Structures are given as C-alpha cells and as structure tokens.
Amino acid sequence: MADEKAPETKPSEKNNRDEVALELMKFIAVSTGYGKGSPGTGFAGKSGSRSAEDQAEALLELFQRCRQAVEQPVKSE
Q: Which of 5, 19, 50, 76 could form a disulfide with 54 if both were Cys (CB 3.0 to 4.6 A apart)?
C-alpha cells in the first residue's frame, strides 16, 4: 500500500470546457439577472414572479447554450 501512487488528477478536456461554460453562465446570469423571478428596474416583463423550478430550468438552458458556445471550433484566418 505504501508503494501505491495516487493517480494524477488532471482535468479532462471535457471537464475543462464544462468549467468554462459554467463560468460563462455565471457571468451572464449575474450581469443580466437571467433566471431571476422579477425583472430589473426599467425593464418590462411578465407580471408575477417565476417559480423556483422555472428559474432552475432557465439557468440549465443557459448552461446548455454556454456549453454549445464553448464547444464550437474557433475559425482561424
């Protein structure tokens, strides 16, 4: 047991992309108030507040969109 080495924990490329997508999602959500129940000052929106389930669904959708954006290949010129 003393001779066993712990495997190196390098994040895989997929996990790295997911982390980038998560950070992008957080930035967008915080900057714009995306997924919040009530609209911000000066913005008209639907009346009433959104349920926690609706908010979670909106954030999951945003995360999926961010993952797609991160996974798109970069066009080089």
A: 50
Residue 46 has pLDDT above 80, yes or no: no
Rg (CA), the chain: 19
How many residues are listed for the chain in this entry? 77
Q: Is 8 exposed, middle or buried, given 0-12, 13-18 or 19+ CB atoms closer than 10 A?
A: exposed
The label of the residue with tokens 């080089």 reads 76
Tokens (6 digits) for 56: 């979670």
pLDDT in tens, 18-30: 999 999 999 998 9
- In single-letter form, the type of residue at position 4 comes to E
